[in-house]
Amino acid sequence: MAADEQPEPGSSHEYLERPRDGNGKFARSMDSVRRDAAAAEYWADNPGTTYQQIADMFGYYDRSQAWRGIQSAKRDVALPAVTKLRQTESEQLDALYLMAMEIIERNHVMVSHGRVVCGDDGQPLPDDGPRLQAIQTALRIRDQYQNLHGLKQPAKVEHSGGVRYEVVGVDAEDLT
Q1: Which of 9, 134, 147, 161 yields a CA-CA distance of 20 to 30 A from 105?
Q2: Phi and psi at residue 118, in whole multiples of 5°?
Q3: What's the rounded Cα separation, in Å, for the pair 106 and 49?
């Protein structure tokens, strides 16, 4: 069915065979992407249509699969905008990171009460404060970049030990 065609209510559709990836999980085919888009368009144009009606019209297995299809179509529509936003944010973070790196690479002298502080040899004393602040800023920028692109792995929590179940009001001896 083309995306611009609207099925007649009550029409029969064959259920689309859903392809699977190498791990046996369902993968979206171009047919299912088109079907999801057509279902989402029909659903938007026909307020009051139930997900079961969408499932019957577009060949989804049940209403929950129809709902998931429409949600997938919404994500597909938003994807180009989200990609562009990520690119813009990345460029801004890159520019800020370069500024921080320039500050890190500069030589900073210690200043006190508006005057350069010199050592016993008459040379200005180095000030590491601005460099350390720029390093902290660069690390925060990298953290934001990793968050933006989903590069951080979720923390794993391991638990060892057992679980004990107790049924209140039932004597354990009665169960044997």
Answers
A1: 147
A2: -115, 155
A3: 64
